[in-house]
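My main concern about presentation is that the manuscript never shows what a single data entry looks like. For the editor and my fellow referees, an illustration may be useful. For illustration, here is how one protein appears when written out as sequence plus structure tokens:

***
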Amino acid sequence: MAGSILYFAVRQPRKPTICLFRRRQPRIPADCRNTFPLAMAGALATIRMLEKNNGQYYDRVDHRQTKLKEGLMEIAKKFDQPILIQGPRGLIYVGLIDKDVAYTPADLASIDMNKQLRFRSLLHEQGVIIGAGNRWVVIIGAGNRWVVSGELSDDDISDTLERTERAMAQLN
């Protein structure tokens, strides 16, 4: 709380902070992201890096993500495996379900979780998802979301698709 009050006091230097709390005036949310100097410095450095060359980094992410999504779709088709791939730039959901789009978790209720978990296990064995030194980060929880980085090369994507194909071959 002290960090947020200090940050808030800097943002509103003419008004005593405690008075604003008493009046329930709108204020900046009190959490670690807006008050931790190291995190703020890191965020600013990241933003500056992403802005370079007119945002060219985002073009690389888009290119890699498109290549990955198209490759995954081809692999699924080869093995007659239904697959849902969707998500915003840099983050895709990969689910073994016959849907074009999912809007809510209820849309994924019919997924075969045993098959999905087996696929994740095979991807792990192939070195595609989380493990020492692997290139993809799978978010814990649903565990079916892949983070795509612009730092990946086309060779990285091709290698990942080859490994994914081996995993899917073992799935069927």
In short: The domain at 54-171 is CATH 3.90.1150.10 (Aspartate Aminotransferase, domain 1).
